[in-house]
């Protein structure tokens, strides 16, 4: 996790170096910030967050279910091979 933070920081530094000339001539602070991050929209934020949380939980649950099924299938193959050998 520490390596991810360091990589993100170094990536941000590289972006800043590549676009430094553009940042120097741009007066709008929000446009400069948009290079590195985004802001939440003011409209529909109350509705968007619960929907996005629900979708995140749904896809996480589906992912875990698929992983369990794949692992169970692998276990069945291993047990079938073990039964054939012995």
The gist of it:
With 86 residues, this protein is an all-alpha fold. The protein has helices at 2-18, 20-25, 29-36, 45-85.
Task: Write up what this structure looks like.
The protein has helices at residues 2-18, 20-25, 29-36, 45-85. With 86 residues, it is mostly helical. The longest helix has 41 residues, at 45-85. The mean pLDDT is 79.
Average pLDDT for all residues: 79
Number of helices: 4
What is the chain-wise order of helices and strands?
Answer: HHHH
Described by the principal axes of the CA atoms, the overall outline is flat
Gyration radius (Cα, Å) is: 24 Å
DSSP helix fraction = over 70%
As a percent range, the share of strand residues is under 5%
SSE-based structural type? mainly alpha
| Uncertain segments | none
Q: How can the largest sheet be summarized? A: none
Secondary structure elements and their pairing?
Blueprint: H1 2-18, H2 20-25, H3 29-36, H4 45-85
Essential attributes:
84% helix, 86 residues, 0% strand, flat, mainly alpha, 4 helices
């Amino acid at each position: 996790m520490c390596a991810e933070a360091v990589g993100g920081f170094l990536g941000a530094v590289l972006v800043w170096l590549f676009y430094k000339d553009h940042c120097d001539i741009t007066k709008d602070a929000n446009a400069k910030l948009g290079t590195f991050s985004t802001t939440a929209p003011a409209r529909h934020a109350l509705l968007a967050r619960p929907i996005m949380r629900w979708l995140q939980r749904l896809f996480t649950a589906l992912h875990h279910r698929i992983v369990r099924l794949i692992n169970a299938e692998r276990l069945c193959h291993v047990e079938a091979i073990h039964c054939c050998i012995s």
